[in-house]
Amino acid sequence: MGLDLEQAAEGGVLRGRGTAQGEGSSPAADGRGVGGVGQAQPRPILTLGYPVSANRYWRTCRGRTFRSAEADRYKDSAKRAASLAGLPQFDGPVAVYIALHPKLTKKGVASLARMDLDNCIKVTLDALNGVAYCDDAQVVRLFAEVGHAVRDGGLSVVVRSMEGRA
């Protein structure tokens, strides 16, 4: 079973991969579209690699805190994925929906060792900062859960505009 991120966007559970449709049963069900106006369009689901550990994300040297080289590579991969998916950089408030997919073991079952969901959120929001939105202060709605296990682990992420929504 895949992740239905649009269902999560409307308060449901993450269940499908690919592209999330607009609200309702059809792409044009509400006419708001991705940005809140015009014909509803599919929202891209970003498929990212397994996130960098929060413990390896930030480094401190001589009193300065900076992203590690590993974190920079992860942020670059998020930028490439957003570009390939056609995800715009939003200027207004956004909602972010995240599914953390644990790694599959050689036996084909979900690994018991996985990143804590709260650390996954921090790493993901930072990786998307300056990519899907200008500033993480724009995130006004957040939903995250542990999804189904996949071969090398990973994330499924939907970012959508909350402009004009109550």
If you had to describe this structure to a student in words, what would you say it looks like?
The structure is a single chain. The chain has 166 residues and is of the alpha+beta class. The protein has one domain: 60s Ribosomal Protein L30, Chain: A (2-Layer Sandwich), CATH 3.30.1330. It has 4 helices and 8 strands. A 4-stranded mixed beta sheet has the order 3-8-6-7. The protein has a two-stranded antiparallel sheet with strand order 1-2. It has a two-stranded antiparallel ribbon with strand order 4-5. Helix 4 links the parallel strand 6 (94-101) and strand 7. Residues 11-41 have low confidence and may be disordered. Pfam families: RusA (PF05866). One of its GO terms (biological process) is DNA repair. Residues 12-40 are annotated as: Disordered.
Secondary structure layout:
Elements: H1 5-9, E1 19-20, E2 43-44, E3 46-48, H2 54-57, E4 58-61, E5 64-67, H3 69-85, E6 94-101, H4 117-128, E7 139-146, E8 154-161
Parallel strand pairs: 6-7
Antiparallel strand pairs: 1-2, 3-8, 4-5, 6-8
GO molecular function: magnesium ion binding
Organism: Zoogloea dura
Protein name: RusA family crossover junction endodeoxyribonuclease
Describe the main β-sheet briefly.
Answer: 4 strands, mixed
Task: Give the N-to-C terminal Cα separation.
Answer: 32 Å
CATH superfamily descriptor:
Holliday junction resolvase RusA
- SSE topology string: HEEEHEEHEHEE
What would the CATH topology be? 60s Ribosomal Protein L30, Chain: A
Please tell me how large the radius of gyration is: 16 Å
Strand order of the largest sheet: 3-8-6-7
Low-confidence stretches: 11-41
Structural class category: alpha+beta
The CATH architecture can be named as 2-Layer Sandwich
Total strand count, please? 8
Number of structural units classed as domains? 1
In round numbers, the mean pLDDT is 77
Identify the CATH class.
Alpha Beta
The share of residues in extended strands comes to 15-25%
Count helical runs.
4
Pfam families: RusA
Region (Disordered): 12-40
GO molecular function, one term: magnesium ion binding
Protein name: RusA family crossover junction endodeoxyribonuclease
